[in-house]
Amino acid sequence: MNLNRIHQIAVYARDLDEALTFYRDTLGAKMITRFDPPGLLFLDFSGVRLLLENNGPKATIYFRVEDIHSAVEELRSRGVQFISEPHMIFKDEQGLFGKTGTEEWMAFFADPSGNTLALASRKGRV
To answer: pTM score, two decimals?
Structure first.
């Protein structure tokens, strides 16, 4: 396992329209989709997803891994304590983030300063 690729970053946005204008029109991100409610806007920066949330954290870093279960075990062997075990958070029935029907799995932990970090893995149809 090598944590060398950022998968997704979640950032607080007080106003999604204002955020969309800034990130898409000013900074050049590609809009992927918007879920409102609950107030989520997904953008793409050359393969790194930016999630803007009305009620979200200041920042969360998601690392993409091929096998979330083995990555959790490897990090656990290094002393990492997980806040949330691997679980499916979304089944992509519309193909919004890739192949239709793919499941997105995540597990959450924290850095020494209390910032939230996550492992993310995509699994094909089961």
So the answer is: 0.74
